[in-house]
Amino acid sequence: MGLSAEIGATELAGVATPVVQVQVRVLPDGRMSARDSAAYLGHSMARMATWRMEGNGPAWVRVGGKIFYRREELDRFIKEGK
């Protein structure tokens, strides 16, 4: 019997996975800074930058020289499991 894709080894071993709550700022139009987006996804700023350079990761926009992500795009990225 193999492991299910939905059940990891830590769950089978009875080890609780901690849930970390983060605070992020979402602008009224739904944009989030690159730093807040990284925290929202649980990844580093470096990983986000790598995804941008590779053309992977969630969709982003540049406004006034700054990188932003829309919350709905981040949620879509999470839902698609990428």
Account of the 3D structure:
The chain has helices spanning 9-12, 34-41, 45-54, 71-79; strands spanning 31-33, 60-63, 66-70. The protein is α+β, with helices and mostly antiparallel strands and 82 residues long. The model has no long low-confidence stretch (mean pLDDT 85). The radius of gyration is 16 Å and the shape is globular. It has a domain at 26-79: Orthogonal Bundle (Arc Repressor Mutant, subunit A), CATH 1.10.10. It has a three-stranded antiparallel sheet. It contains four helices and three strands; from the N terminus they run αβααββα. It starts with 8 loop residues before the first helix and ends with a helix.
Strand proportion, as a percent range, falls in 5-15%
Main sheet overview: 3 strands, antiparallel
Outline, from the CA principal axes? Answer: globular
Termini gap: 27 Å
Structural class by helix and strand composition: alpha+beta
Q: Rounded to an integer, what's the Rg over CA atoms?
A: 16 Å
Mean pLDDT level: 85
Tally of alpha and pi helices: 4
List how many beta strands DSSP finds.
3
Name of the CATH first level of the domain at 26-79: Mainly Alpha
Give the CATH architecture of the domain at 26-79. Answer: Orthogonal Bundle
Low-confidence blocks of residues: none
What is the percent of helical residues? 25-40%
Along the chain, the helix and strand elements come as HEHHEEH
* Widest sheet: strand ordering: 1-3-2
CATH fold title of the domain at 26-79: Arc Repressor Mutant, subunit A
